[in-house]
Structures
1.
Amino acid sequence: MEVKLAECAGFCFGVKRAIDTVYEQLAKQAETGKQIYTYGPIVHNEEVVRELEQKGVQVIDGEAGLDVSAIDGKTQRTVIIRAHGVPRAVQEKMEQSGLECIDATCPFVKRIHRIVEKAGKDGYEVVIAGNPGHPEVEGIRGWCTGPVKVIETEEEAGNFTAENGEKVCLVSQTTFNYNKFQSIVEIFQKKGYNGNVVNTICNATEERQRAARDLAAEADVMIVIGGKNSSNSRKLYEICSGECAHTYFIQTLDDLHLELPKAVRLVGITAGASTPNNLIEEVQNYVRINF
Ligand code: F3S
């Protein structure tokens, strides 16, 4: 029986960079003595967050509506902004309250912040294709300098009317579905909007999904490793389930209760963007040794 890992699996560039930033700060902590916080969990993976907590890194609850008051009064401390980014007002508030603010926003997300900031100044209404409750979208919204609307479905795109006449700048959440984005672009074109369309979907998501689909199509059993709150991991599970009837979704090795059907030739493994390498290796080794 063969065990194969999908071509792209686990941490994406932006998440790896953010976690590396936390470890760099931890290394400096002996000198600076500063308490380290992350604004919201650095990654949607409880294992990683727990490990950092054991090293003294505390999480400020930025998730609940990105509440700025959560950081009030905490001075002489370092706060790390995670890959999703935060609204401009939140970053400014942190800086004004004397916190050392380290921005680990993924450069691909930062690019969207710059696009929407400029678009508003140039008189465009910004439309973000994405999930309005997602922190990344909250962050993007918070860098807009003019009218902004978040739409998630083709139906919402059909019902949309621009406030500012026809000048519309359309961007997407980095993890938005590509086909859905294309449909929204077509709906906007039919409406005749003088659009500035920027596809800001991140390749890491597409690549990971394509690799998962390819592997699931040939595998007899598929294992998807990811945090239960991680939407990209859940998406991988959906894709793999569509190709392979025996697909398991696990957070850690403890969740894996494998019942392999007879005559299994290939077990495929993939992992969401927030899953650390050591966890992937652990699962891989377990399946290799025990089956
Ligand atoms: Fe950045 Fe793409 Fe990851 S936007 S955080 S590299 S999924």
2.
Amino acid sequence: MENEKETKPLNFIEKIIEDDLREGRVPNDTIVTRFPPEPNGYLHIGHIKSICLNFGLAEKYKGICHLRLDDTNPAKEDMEYINSIKDDIHWLGFDWGEHEYYASDYYDQLYEIALDLIRKGKAYVDSLSPEEMKEYRGTLTEPGKNSPDRDRSIEENMDLFLRMKNGEFPEGKYTLRAKIDMASPNINMRDPALYRIKYAEHPRTGNKWCIYPMYDYTHGQCDSIENITHSICTLEFDVHRPLYDWFIKTLGIYPSHQYEFARLNLTYTLMSKRKLLELVQKGLVSGWDDPRMPTLCGVRRRGYTPQALKMFCEKIGVSKRDQLMDIQLLEWCVRQDLNARSNRYMVVEDPIKVTLTNWEPGKVEWFDCPLNPAEPEGAKRSVPFTGELYISRADFMEDAPKKFFRLKPDGEVRLKYTYIIKCNEVIKDADGNVVELRCTYDPTTRPGGGEWRSVKGTIHWVSIAHARELELRLYDRLFTQADMSDIPEDKDYKDFLNPDSLVIGKGYAEPAILDDNSGIAVQFERVGYYYKDPDSTPEHPVFNRTTVLKDSYKPE
Ligand code: ATP
Ligand code: MG
């Protein structure tokens, strides 16, 4: 593992950082990155890429990563989101220490900076309505037009901006804009808005302000205020970089450099916060933490682990081209991690009763079975064996082909960890459904005792008298289409919701499962990984299917 890390080629941001460090371009040789979520929703799998990158770089180069909540839009933001973001990052295993910042902490400073821009003749108060502003802005092919207010005097701008702040005007009446270039080929440079009037209560500053700084103005300033050395964001912000650089030059502030990387997109998954919010609000999922949601709290409830998510980020790397990653790679990472670490239990989902006709009635024999086969000498669980058992319906076949090595009439199979049994008789109900198999066990085949004899098939089982009934929530993909960015004009993303994304099932489990306190998903032997849901109680245990045990997918 250590070696693998050392020989892994650097990604393009690591290359830049190593060059900067080598050339002495980093103050105190300490890189400073930040993860800057807007607290208007829950974090999702896409954010993990940014978190692993920003926190990961700080770890790797012994730098610092700030958590900055970019809370510039009070109408859409909420303490609930702020708290969930912090919980989620901690759950992933990253920590920002004392470096927890909020754009709103800088509102006084940002206001002073705006005054500075006005004094320098680089900002003006505009009375164009939002519609007019749009009209004056021009298009990608046509330059914009100067606002009639563009040449207001500095005194007049100062006076109006102060009065905007004092709440003398209604929303939309005035806007503070940067004075750059209405003919710039880059629309972001056509006198972008810096402040708007908004009478909204802010989750942190309450009613102190009725003017709020725009995202584009705030974002770069915050990076400079915090001396961020490497400001890493997603590709769509590359056209905003000239504006950030303009602020740096005009104001002479700390030159945080911005580097852009490709967003992560996943097949069968949507990551737009707006759409995720809609799914929650319309009740199409049970909440932000519905195990089908791509949110961190959703995948956590599904049973995905931080280790698996980090492994996934390592595998996908950091590119400059947009990627649609195969969700199977993520599922593969989850299985890799759980296979190594999860405890094993036997659970039968669709049972058939097996009666051992030569078993002494009422006798219970306990078998010590390893919780994890990778550690045969490690911790054990005790599994009761009796003469009345459940096996999975799928493990029996009446007219079995030659290659079917599980149970069939007159055939033999090993019941995992225990004896070999032989099926002597098949009992059916009036409709011809198999309801019971009458079998005999071979007492000489007890592992560790008697004679070792092998048969081709081994199946799992549960003692009926000891079985605990579980509610199983069998989750599948939320959407039916792989590329959810490619929705036809006449359709809506909700038309692609998978009607079978949740099926409620039932399982019969060996009793030890209820005492499991590993905190991660368990493996139902031969079936899949399941995670105990927070809804679960000792009287009514509930398990979520994390993923099936195997599929044919292999990463490249
Ligand atoms: P929205 O969907 O509401 O526009 P956003 O996806 O940009 O918002 P933010 O909260 O602003 O969400 O994101 C915080 C950080 O996470 C940003 O730096 C952003 O670039 C990054 N990020 C967001 N989505 C992804 C993604 N799919 N892949 C990689 N990084 C992402
Ligand atoms: Mg954003």
3.
Amino acid sequence: MTQSGKQTQEFRAEVRKVLNILTHSLYTNREIFLRELVSNASDALDKLRFRINRGDKPIAPDLPLEIRIDIDKDKKLLTIADTGIGMSAEELAENLGTIAKSGSEEFLAQLDSAAPADGGDAEADKPDAANIVGRFGIGFYSVFMVAEKVEVVSRPAFGDNSAVHVWTSDGLGAYSIETGEEGALQRGTVVRAWLRDDAAEFLEKFRVESAVRNHSAFMPFPILLDGSRVNSEPALWLEPKFSVKKEQYAAFYKTLTYDAKEPLDVLHLSVDAPVQFNALLFIPDSAQDFFGMDRDFWGIDLYARRVLIQRRNKDMIPEYLAFLKGVTDTEDLPLNISRETLQENVLLRKINQVIVKQTLNHLEKLAGNDQEKYLRFWRLHGKIFKLGYHDFPNRERVAALLRFNSSALNDGDALSGLDEYMARAPEGQKTFWYVSAPNREAARLNPHTERFRVKGIEVLYLYEPVDEFVMEGLGKYKEWDFKPVENAPDDALSAFGDKQEQPQGTPLSEEEREQFTLLLERMREILGDRVKEVRISGRLEDSPSVLVSPDGSMTSSMEKLLKVMHKDDTLPVKILEVNQAHPLLRSMLRIFRADPRDAMLELMTQVLFDASLLLDGFIKEPQALASHVNDLLTETASLYAEVRKA
Ligand code: ADP
Ligand code: MG
């Protein structure tokens, strides 16, 4: 880019795509373009103040740091000016001509999920601009939702070359940059937007004022609309707690997060030791997807004596508290600290420790005083919070705050903690038993849980893959250990009496037992190397059979996870355990005694195995399974018809 003359440049493809969507989709909440332009102006002022605090001297040093919005109705012109850091010609091209690739991709992905499928024109069906703009480094372009032409005049605050440049575009295919007049502005940036007819509302002062109050009330710099100041909110986090109203917290939260909902909870901290800081931290009332879209969208805004040092700083909270939104402000940090050295800063680590402690205190109190609210917190943020099992010094406290569904609860939505589990357990139990399953029904049908039901021993139901890592990571809680039910040794529950009447069936005679052993051998022969062994089970009550892992170490859900990770689609070779008291096995024994090589016996063994595999969560050859079942049905149907003399 040369310094003089007019240069016209095509927008990059991804910018064109985004612009096209912004100008042609009918958005609700178009007013957020003001939020974006004001926040850019505020960022520019923040950057300038940061440099000044470091000792750098800007041009026009006496200009106040402020944002001016002016309306010219006749020209249909809206102007947003700041006296901030400004942009050179290169920066104009770089910042207003491209989008970080990841930003535009995520924007488009989000749009897909937000857009109505049938293009219906009801107001409620229009995509909401507030939710999709501003998150992906495309905030500036939102001005084209309302403008047919935009001019950005800018003059850098630092550097040898502080010439004025003008960026112009109609938001279609291209933009141009040319040198502007020396006297056009003293410092900073002016955005001029010529509004489309359908956006004339933003030429009304009250309309602009309400939008600015709505979205930008807490901007740390004066915002002047046609000469008079419209924002006057104090830095709430520095106010004494008792003087802040609930509505003020909510308003601040909304401008901070763009969340339309009120926060679920607020922590307002004022700390003097071991480090001085004030913090305003919010627990949102909506969930974020920290394992997808929002992977990097967390952190706490860091201020030093009301000067913004860094947005979304990730050193002040551990990842498992990523659901927290808010700001901290400290007097102990030099204003001229470089963002690079922030990371090694001991101070931030201390702030981190205090925030962890205070947040855990807060959650413990909530869990004790307002269970319902705590469970709401857990349902929204438990997924990320449970990763706190990593936090060794605080492990025990995090563990106490975990919530699970379990066999002792009445339905799939109910939750309880480890302490409640311990309180319900019979004398002598020192283990938290758990089973992984996709849902409650599957957990209850898991054959491994049967004898726990008979003995009345509670089993925790883990519905998320990460839960098993949490259990293994915790190792122990209050001296109790965690074990998956499928790894329970045969005598694990022998100390506990039956809670449920069990039909035992007639015991097998000596001779029948010998025959049963031979039946097991025959079944093994039929299944070949698909099983490691066929043996009598000590864990079954209702089910005829179950698959168990040979070494008893890895749970089948963990094994599945590893297989997925290694793209291994082979079936695991396990031990088939059968319930010798089950009527099916008793009948099979009779068939075996009549003829060890009976074809029906073979078919039944196949289906029994297939069913066990299915219950273990594997289905690899549905055709083979269906054909075995059909053969079996054909045989039994003909026999049954015979019996019914149909
Ligand atoms: P984001 O603010 O998320 O980076 P935007 O699309 O809002 O994305 O702005 C893109 C970039 O353009 C900003 O990062 C900033 O570098 C630059 N920019 C926009 N407005 C201004 C301004 N008023 N003063 C200085 N730089 C600006
Ligand atoms: Mg922006």
